[in-house]
Amino acid sequence: MTKIQNILAASITLGALLVSSQAGAVSLGVKLACAADYHAHCSMHAPDSPGVRKCMRAVGRNLSQGCISALVAAGEVSKSTVERKVATK
Q1: Closest by CA position to 45, among listed 9, 17, 83
Q2: Threshold 0.85, pTM exceeds
């Protein structure tokens, strides 16, 4: 993909994440921090769906540090859980 195609794909994904307003929606900070991770690993699931949450947990070790930090800050995952998973790498 060219740089413009990557930017366009990220913008579309981010737009889809921002438009979603289902109950239990994650914070804007998590959506911004995890947009690339969502697109790379879990875009086959609707944003804010139970499937995307399950997918993100399954690929947790492959998520970017920025996404993981945002998930911890938002209370989506505990810091101890992250530390435990990192220790078992």
Answers
A1: 17
A2: no
Type of residue numbered 86: V
Helix (H) or strand (E) holding 43: none
Total number of residues shown for the chain = 89
Three-class DSSP category at 40: helix
36, 19 Cβ separation under 8 angstroms? no
User: What does the pLDDT look like over 24-65, one tens digit per residue?
Assistant: 567 888 889 999 999 999 999 988 788 988 898 899 889 999
CA-CA distance, 46 to 82, in Å (whole number)? Answer: 24
CA–CA separation, 2 and 63 (whole Å)? 23
